[in-house]
Fold these 4 entries.
Entry 1:
Amino acid sequence: MKSNTALLPLIVRKEDFGGILFDPADATFLELDHEALDLVSAFLKNTGLTLNKKEMEFIKTIKKNITYDRKRDVKYITTGAGFSRDYDFTVFSAPTLADFQITNRCFLNCSHCYASSSPDGKHASMDDIDLVLSGISEYGVCQIAIGGGEPLLHPHIEEVLRLCHEKGIVPNLSTNGMHLTEKMLLILKKYCGAIAISLENTGEKLAMWRRVGFDHVKETILKLKSFSIPTVVQVTLSADNVHDLDDIVAFCLDSPHLYGVIFLAFKPAGRGKGFSSPLSTLDAIQVSKGLEAAFHKLSDKIRVGYDCCLAPAIAGYKGKSFVSKKYLEGCSACRSSIGISPDLDVIPCTFLPDYVLGNLKQNSLKEIWNGEPAGKFRDLLKQNSEKKERCSTCNLKNSCLGGCPVMDLVDCCYR
Amino acid sequence: MKIIRKLSGFTTNSSASSEWIPPETDPADAIEGQEQSTEEVPPDSGTTQSTTVQPDQLKTPFQLPAWGKPLLSIGIVVILITGLFFLERIIRKVWKKIKGKGHEK
């Protein structure tokens, strides 16, 4: 049984620069200029079109990039004016991704948990979840990252995932792997795009981070593999484990079936405050070199990614980015992504639970996205790269955005 | 009319809305300020040919991959040289035979 994401509707959404075409089958996300968007929209509306040679070629290119079926549903979204005129960086007219913490319950009690989840944490109610999913679906959000807490502890997890599909949204999920029964694996396979599991170190060193142990992580990855579920390994890097990056990379290379490996910056948030030190406390050149080496070792075999918080380390080494500028993404909070707490508070990202932009019980996502607190956060992003002297001479500043505007997570070594 | 950027891959983390660096990105050209064009449409050939089509009529015909054309040219040259070589051998043999027959007479 394959995941049903290929049955979800394509999303076509207007933006200031033109628009986006999103294919949930494999989460292909195409940014198109105005002319291209108009052509693609007309083509997908399935009307008789008069195409010249150039347009026919372009439609062929589009068909190569998506899973095309003329019977497939298409969701057309116009969310209103974007924010491009106000900023030098891209701000989408609505989020493309929402990170929804459907519960605060988790039995692991990890010392570094940024969400401060605990065994008596609360679940979001099904009514609230329905409200969130309806809201983000209407607003054209393409993917949802379901987290917690441990989302598999939510008593209605199957219903939540089914509802995501009903609303035309791809659900992805992060888990600690403690509750992966055969029934649960079948549910995840049926509905989810990808499943993430965290791995902060290998062997006995992992015990510092999570008491489940390295063997449990390996078993979880194998379980997911046996059900052919796309599996992402999330590696949170702090001053304590970045020196062990080679071991983590070697483990990932031994697991070529992985869907991807993503490196995340450690955030001193929640219980994580005081647990470890962020990468900004280390020599910036060494951090950049380590990340670059990891990228080169992995990228031939496995999909590699970095969270936007690591952008300065990607951008900074010798003033050059080791990935194309086009794919260098600074903080995505309030530009293309949003976080939602179990109480339906909307936050820029899940690492900033106190920075509340609004609550979905009182306001729609559109009102919150266009509201003053979200605007202030974007201004913070703008000021972040403007106030740093070294950013002023760096031509990557509108991609990197100078790092997290709230926490000092990682430094860049551009001088 | 163009694709400005293509991203692909399921996203499991809010701080990584476009987290996956495309596998085709060559680190060698990932230098400062250099933009890569992923799927740009070829320039307008100037033709005004128009066709009315339904979406499912747009079948992609067989197309040579990017490396196909140079490989094909090299192949043709090699075949041509080999052919000339054998032709020269045949002519030489035939000439010898004709010459031999003339000698017998």
Entry 2:
Amino acid sequence: MIGHMLKRDVLRNKTITFTLLTFITLSSLLMASAMSMVVDVWASVDRLFQQAKVPHFVQMHAGSIDQQRLDDFTKKQPLIQAQQTVEMLNIDQTTLFLKNRQQIDHNSVMDVSFVKQNQSFDFLLNLHNEKVEMASGEIGVPLYYMKKYDLHIGDQIWLATDEFEMAFTISTFIRDAQMNPSLVSSKRFVVNDMDWQMIKAHMGQSEYLLEFLLKDTAQLHEFEQMYQSMDLPQQGPTITYTLYKVLNAATEGLIAFVIMLISALLIFIALLCIRFIMMAALEEDAREIAVMKAIGIPRKQIQKLYLTKYIALAFTASTAGYVLALFISPLLTKNIALYMGVGKQSVWHYIIPCAGVFVIALLIIGYCQLILRKYQHISTVEALRTGHLTEKSSSKKGLLLHRSKKVNIHVFLGIKDIWARLNMYSVIGIVYMMCLFMMIVPVNFLYTIQSPSFITYMGAGHSQIRIDLQQTVDIEQRFLHMQETLRTDPDIVKYASFITSGYKVELQDGKYDSIHVETGDFSIFPLSYLKGKAPKQLGDIALSVLKAKELEKDIGDDIVLLINHQKHRLTISGIYQDMTNGGKTAKAYLDVPPTNILWYTVNVDMKQSIILDDKLEAYRDAFYPAKVTDVAHYLAQTFGTTIAQLQLVTKFAIVLALAIASLMTMMFMKMLLAKEATQIAIMRSLGFTVQILRLQYTIRIVCVVLLAIVSGMILAQTIGQVLLRQLGAIMGAPNIALLTHPYMSYLICPLLLLSIVLIAVWLSSKGLKQQKMLMKLGGE
Amino acid sequence: MTTIVSAQHVNKVYKMGETQQHVLKNIELAIKEGEFIAIMGPSGSGKSTLLYAVSGMDQITSGRVLFQDKELTALTEEQLAALRLQTMGFIFQQSHLLKNLTIFDNIILAAYLAKIENRQTVNRRALELMKGMGIEELANHMITQVSGGQLQRAAICRALMNNPRMLFADEPTGALNTNAAIEVMDILADIHQSGTTIMLVTHDIKVAAKTERVLFMVDGQIVAEHTLGTYKKEQLKAREERLVGWLSQLGF
């Protein structure tokens, strides 16, 4: 009997069943895909890190190296398993020619370095995760360049200066566990040992990676502190195994997060949808339920009849979603597979997505049970007599037609109906609100991350041009020359120079940790501070959020810096957001000249009349080898992959939201028309035309959509901001201000939603013409 | 007297899958302006179908229906709606008032839609009509707060709001108790007295006895007709007896 009822029910409510099935399938599909992405990232990173033997601790160093001292240190330290010193040749990007011999890529923000394959660990791998070996004349190119320039195996690459030229043939692409992510602004090219020596003889500047493998990664932090408290090479940032993992997983993680968010929204909508359908079905079947009760069928048995349908539906749809995800996931994880390789397939690849989907199915069934419980006290007599479960609306008077002197009667009837059945309309209203939220939030996320002011979350004020001068032999001379040029340049509106030095900060237990301290005038390109303000007077220091958290300090607290073996007590004046260098930096106003300089940064704003590209070109020539970047390009390249993926997700979210809105509208209208068939017939008998009735339905839905649009906008501003902050907090910028794309958020998205809903209402109210008046008015 | 409604060779066939149900068979009917006519017959004989066919509420399969010399089958949906709004009134077995509106708002709705008179005049007229039916104190009640008889009187008020030329009533007393049914029929008789044409469908001899002419339908056809003449209260008993006699001859 249950099977028979199920079949009848599905056939009777084809549209509704299909809509529900679609929602549950989609949300299961997204949940399973996102889960599978998480598992994949995890497995792939794990496998890549194992096969590449990623070092646990890396100190970059731009000065000279005393390997003997390092070896002694390694021997004495029980924590170290192995040590390796990697020499990288940093190449000026204007000497690197990709694609063709003439074209120089000036806009790249990446630091290019040439290396040999390593001997004991930190291997550079090919796309099969195998250690690459280069023959003479061959080159292994980082994946980042393959994607950016569409390079192929067999293509030529040139290194050329006025005196020296060398051509290479691409023999493989490189998966570099350390420098894969676009968030890491260095890329390593691999060449044959002999070729490397040849390049070194003619060009490039050496920079060292002092790499350590530890016996136990749990002692990483301890080792890091110990290393930094020793007098060992430290001219450059340090990077740990954990940071490598975070950087590798960040891009894909962000996408998985957004997909899970969409899936959660879909589940919410599916639940609303179910509530809606069940209430309508119970309403429709009130008389039958009453009859069943009257002939003595136990309540539990009746509940089972209804529940079975939803159990069947939930499991069919979630199974379908899971199976679809098996096909769709490879598309979503294509990037992961390319950059990190395919992880070891384990049973978790199937179990975790399956568990996610199972939870969705259980949630749906649980919710159905909850609704049924609410309706278990149906009065048999009442239902038999009236055929209704509830008639809450009929005793509410609300607005009165004869008192509304000038109001159009169609508008009146529309508003009156919404007022009388607020519960029902609020369900569809919430769906529209969610749909708009789903459209606006990704749009604004994208807008925020693409905005030039996003640089302020990277610990720098907003300027047009940024010049980076890294460690070179005569770095100070070059810096002075640069200062001189800028001071006399009439095209400049303002500029500010900053010096970043590597100092040590005293920890609570008396040990020392390294800290990058930037000095300069912070008032020229102001940064908005999360708390407090920029260092203004001697002895002021500002910390990045993550550094302050690590040191457990707040504004007003003192910290002690070790500069030139001298202790300096500084007061924390402010806390700012920074996503660069692992998010752990500081800015200070010091009374000692900077020592142990790591790099220089200069921010420049030009007069409006100046053509920026020309100026960039001129500075590149003048300040070689400093890196001159257009800040807009800088962001686009640093977040390139994330932006591209987010764009895709945004488009998907918009299409999905519109599809949901139209499907839900059609379903809602279908139910409304069925529920109100008698009322419609009465109105038609009074002389209302079908066109006018369609207009009345349109008015009702438009009222609901308009309210939903307003609340959706508010929701996107508030909750959207909270979500973005959660995401930013992980990366070191807990207070990212969500920027609102004015046209998209306030005009295009709401208009799209309104139009699609109007079309859906118009299409589904076509059925009004076919409705037979007589059946509903008691004709034979 | 001129003919207000005429049906010529009207057929109505329902198709249900492969089977066909011929519910109106070659109907010929003419109703004069100001006439009060009742349709009787067993259940399923096609009485309501005929009422809805001649009022343009339902489409016919073949034949012609003329209402005030306009052929209904030739009219568009909009024209039919306008005709219903301005010249017809309907009363159903269930009073069929809109559930979200008060009794008063239900009554004035169609008049507001028609926009023949301004809203103040409409409101005044509605109150007068309600007073006439004895339900003026129910104006601001919701439809769940009043009795079936009161609802039906409100439905009659609604049907009369636009001064229709003709009232169509489908079992208007079918859901009422005896007293309420008598009251409603007396109201309909009064309306007829004032010149409105009425066509009603009923099972009830007491109801039919107050009309001028009774048609008897069996199996989709009008098989007999009985003229009772102008109704006078004191003749009611005699008219009922005449009808009983006539109907028993027909096997009803």
Entry 3:
Amino acid sequence: MEAVASRTPDAQTLPSEWGFSCDLEVDYESQEIASIVYSALDVDKELHPDKVKRQMSVSDGKLSVHFEGVEARFLRASFSAFVDVLTLATKTAEEFGKGMESWHHSPVPN
Amino acid sequence: MKNLIALGFEGSANKIGIGVVTLDGTILSNPRHTYITPPGQGFLPRETAQHHLNHVLPLVRSALDEAGVSPAQIDCLCYTKGPGMGAPLQVSAIVVRVLSQLWKKPIVAVNHCVAHIEMGRVVTGAVDPVVLYVSGGNTQVIAYSEGRYRIFGETIDIAVGNCLDRFARVLTLSNDPSPGYNIEQLAKKGEQFIDIPYVVKGMDVSFSGLLSYIEATAVEKLQNNECTPADLCYSLQETVFAMLVEITERAMAHCDKKDVLIVGGVGCNERLQEMMRVMCSERSGRLFATDDRYCIDNGAMIAYTGLLAYAHGATTPLEESTFTQRLQKGYRCYSSETHRYFLSADVTFFEDSPFFSTSESLPISEVLPFPLISPPDAVPSRPLQIYHRHHRVVVPPSLAEVPADSLPIPSASPAPALPPFAGLPIALRKGNRSTRNPHPIYNFLSYHRLSSPYSAFVSAISFVSLLKSTPEALSYPGWRQAMVDEMTALHSNGIWDLIVLPSGKSTVGCRWVYTVKVKIASVRLLLSMAVMRSWPPY
């Protein structure tokens, strides 16, 4: 799995209101897992849709996320919170996505 | 029929718990991990969510392993939808959404409060109790009545657990295993009872005022060695628990139930259980309470409640598996710095100092909801003559000092010098008090039951017309004479001097108030004098 993030806080090329943007791409190498993560994260909308917009899409087993914000700090807060839950969803899929047939008991972690 | 199995996730506050439960109420596993903050500190949403992120997946693994259940055997995945803190709730919700898709299992969203009650009922076997739900976020007296759970009483500000936690922070007690537990242990050593405000309002209780009080007194009394931290813990516990017992008993009397079930984190406090047990036995009922395994937030209660819903056909579609933050209950506060309103339950009341200092000039229209009537903008072109408070030392006063043109004719006082509101009677400035009595009879006043001398007196004072403006008053000889008398008295007593308005000063206006001063005591005095002197009543 690879993650590519590029931030372009470029006020000139974007409309004045949404002056800051940020892109994130995660390659799951599996359309199924990428879709599962997409569906899990798409349920929660942005808390301040007037300040930060988030668009997600899935293609070729990759999850792409595009953020736009009116101020850098809103964008940063939103992006950071999103990365936390994205990591959680990804870890959950990695740990429990092996398929139920191959489920076997592992020792209780201490 | 196969015994249904649910996996439940709880993470609405500082505990992340995962439980595996069957429909008959058997708990197969129920591991949990608590985020413990240093003494003197509470838990914040962001850090709590980070704690949950770190612990949730190992807990899923250990819950399944301990129960000896594979994902294939599970029938539904349950999670706490709310109420609670947003960020921590999201952790459970995300894991459940991913697992639901991986394992192809339905989701059931569960209300945290209902889960506490259902868990309490299945563990204790209570059939139809009055429920006291006491935790860090909730304080409610609930009873199942006429087909639904009804809240009979609750806190009007902060929860009892929140009150205890915050007091523990004042004493910097340890948060391990929980602040409430440490207060309970320390309270056993208390010897002296300190009076704390006891705030029961009908069916409701309030804790924020007594918390403010004990926070203020605690520091002071501890410094003066008047009491020990143990005394304070003991007194606080006794007071708040007595309040809870009182409202619970009231609800019992109201809906005619004998048994009480205590649920929620504070419910494992043995002193609260003891006090409640005494009350129940006096009403020939029973107390049902659980220990810390089930009282404190846990995954099994979510799993069990969700499983009950699932067994009755209720599931939550993935796209609706949201979480709901607790709606903050609190006081509407106004910030004088940002000039904005905000909502907060964390309010300290300083009753002996005014909020607005007198030097601060805040625009009234931003604070008060009624419209401001702006004064006529008239700038005086010549220096105003004003009345200045006569210095007491300058005696004796002489009428000769006073210029002749200042003779007590009120019309001489220039209108622009009046304060903004001077043109309006006080009653209008204050706004009207509405009585909201819907009956038309309320608008009529009857004199015919009054005794004849009283009736004569009342009609006499009712006849005196009350005026709104000075020019109007000047046209009545009676009022004019009264004004002249008043001004003469002021001059002859030397209370005021007439001087030229010093530069840089502005006038503080005064105005004439036309009213009849009547106190019921003076009416009685008049009547009793009339009786004593045998005046003829007419």
Entry 4:
Amino acid sequence: MIQLIAFYLFAVMVVGSAALTIFARNPVHSVLWLILAFFNAAGLMLLAGAEFIAMLLIIVYVGAVAVLFLFVVMMLDIDFAELRSGFARYAPLGVLLIVVLAAEMIFAVGAWSAGSLALSQRIAPTPDEIPNIQALGTLIYTRYLFIFEAAGLVLLVAMIGAIVLTHRARGGVRVQNVWQQNKRRPQDAVRNINQPVGQGVEL
Amino acid sequence: MSMIASLALTLPELILSTGALLLLLVAAWGGDGSSRLISWASVALLAIAGLSLGCANGVAFDGLYKADAFSNFAKALVYAAAAVSILIAPRFFEARGAMRAEYPILILLSSVGMGMMVSATDLLTLYVGLELQSLAAYVLASFMRRDSRSAEAGLKYFVLGALASGILLYGISLLYGFTGTTQFGGVATALGDGISHGELFGLVFVMAGLAFKISAVPFHMWTPDVYEGAPTPVTAFFASAPKVAAMALLVRIAVDAMGPATSSWQQIVIFAALASTILGGVAAIGQVNIKRLLAYSSINNVGFALFGLAAGTPDGVAATMSYMAVYIVMTLGSFLCVLQMRNAAGDAVEDIASLSGLSRTRPGLAAAFAIFMFSLAGIPPLFGFWPKFLVFDALVAIGLWPLAMIGIATSVIGAFYYLKIVKTMYFDEPAPAYAPSASRMENGLIALSAVAVSPLGYLAIPLLGALSMAAARALF
């Protein structure tokens, strides 16, 4: 029972926040609604028993992608009123896309219920007895360790490449020298003087 | 098999990747001033990794990786070529104020990728190794980022390389989908009971993706532009190490994974070989830039090496591996000569016309260049003739007479432009002399490779023949 309630809760929230993502006037609000949609989708994944994908949704989509969106939206100077002005012009195309998408969904559900996909006969069946994070971890860190580490090297090369191709040391920039700041003592920097009246200050 | 035993088999990759990470730290603290130190340390690492090659044989990580005579042979060639590309770089880049400490590190990481490629017995290892090699290569191509030609070369290489990766990945996913496994042995078993349409499509796409990496026609379009634009030491690297690695990978996947479907891939390889030798020969004739010419020369030579694979026999594969061994010596020698082409002001010149009368201004350099050109053309007293002979011998042995004869005819087309360079150097009126060569190491390397491809090279035939035959036997 609690599962059913949770499912409907998450499902309604996903659809609702997705709709609000589109209809929100303020683009920053749109992104915030999108984040809510991601969280609820993660909840749906948890209910479906795919906890790894649920965690990925939160870590990757909320943690990285949505924050990136937020940055982009805040930094770009986009006139959203102008973007919306073409709504009537593009509406027929949008309706067409909706019809195609709906037809495909009906088709897919029909094929699914016909049972021809035979997911149970796949070569690498999902293990039932252990959680799938554990199952993935065992494979990645034992059998596929070599490739996993090599993939890490690929990312390292990408990082080195980005730095080699774009980093330049600019001259004439004042950088903070923490060591020198800490080395400075009060007696070097502060001077106590008894200033006589009527004379200028000596700097 | 325990994890430690598996790791011990991947010792060369472990040495190179750990060393590269440590040197990266040195580079982070030492800055570009430590470039020379890092270069020498990288060469030492490559030498140590090369020495560790003979230690172990076997399959590691449940069939993801295999160390055998074949992978050892290919890795020895790759490491040697990578070491030469590191050695020739500092002087070239320092003259342009562009030496960065990351250059040797990127070559080391690329060598790790190439080692994975030649040792791959699983489509996953193949792909990750290939990406590691390619990604480092894209960065190296645009290493002189202020030079617009270098940046263009890097961008072109990246876009077309990404396309090739996509094609390869599509082929891999088809093969996996239709055979149910990513391991070469499993794919071979699945192909054993006849080849389905899906498997055939997968095979063709994988072949096309790999043909791009060895720049075989019709996937060669990127080669002249990238070779021309990339800095010369990088071009020397592109023309040697990754070619050997991709060729070895192609041979292994063709024999190991697609062995039962030999008749299906044989026609693809024969077409690519013929088209590469013909186009590599004809298109090079009109070139005026020496680096573009050497790019077409590499297309031409890859075609000849593919003839050995087209035979599909142990002899043919041994001939292909011998061909690659001699090819990298000839190619690195030619690019070392190109590095010496600097005008009086010290700027690099790449016109073939500037080579005119080199025999009178720099007789030693002209003689070495002529030896490389004659050898690339496959003219008998020089060592370049020997692998060409082996390749055609393997074709004749399985009765592909007509193919061997067409191949010999195309090598005559290639001979034309190689000889034209020799003619320019020896019989034309002298052009302004080049700046004198200041590097004893580069002269030494030129002399060494010239001796290796001279008739003295024939002394190495027993050793080279035995090693390449052992390599080929490891596959069959």
